Amino acid sequence: MSIRSRRAHRELHGYLEGLYGPQPTLIIREIPHEGAVRISLTVSGTTAIRPDPEDGQTYSSASIDRYAPEFVSLVEQIAARLVAIRSERYTPGGGLEPQDQSDAEYDLHADYYHLIPLASLEIGVPWIEVVRAVAEVLRREDLLDGVVSSQIKQKFASLRWYFDSKPRDFRDQINVIISAAEHLSTVVCETCGAPGRHRRGGWHVIACDPCDEARGRKRTKRVGGDG
Q1: Measured torsion, CA atoms of residues 222, 160, 153, 99, in degrees rounded to the nearest 10
Q2: pLDDT-based confidence at 58, cuts 50/70/90?
Q3: Is the pTM of this model over 0.90?
Q4: CB 19 within 8 Å of CB 75
């Protein structure tokens, strides 16, 4: 397995563990495509254990059951597609080629100009890649016709996706897909896109450990000044 493939497996595994905890039955397989830039993975066996309602914690009563097998399968699909998109920027040595914010916005708009008006995007590159993964799922399911976004932003450490137009005939289907993407975003670092988690400290963000440490150093420097 190449360095790029190992990274893809690790990131997909990390996203799903971040959402659902340890995954002893998770199966990730690579689909080889000769000459392809993307690393395509299939995933199955995610274990989603419902929270114990008697554990003293407070859980939101979402209208969509995020622990239902069908919803978990959808999250798996979007996560695998996100990794495939990110893999286009993997370097042979294990790094990640940077992408300019403006280029990422323009490229997404150019590919999905009805779905994603340029003015609708208020997120960084990693979550733009989440949005692209969703757009690809909507295209695969033939759900793009008449769908127009109004605003895509971060709110309370989660992706929020709002629409100007959403056809009634498949509105519910789109809502479930968007909900799965918003759920996935809660484990995607907003700075680099690696598996992360919710961090507090002046502003609610999703960050991986290295990005959170860098964020802490910047915060300390601002408070302490230059000495």
Answers
A1: 90
A2: low
A3: yes
A4: yes
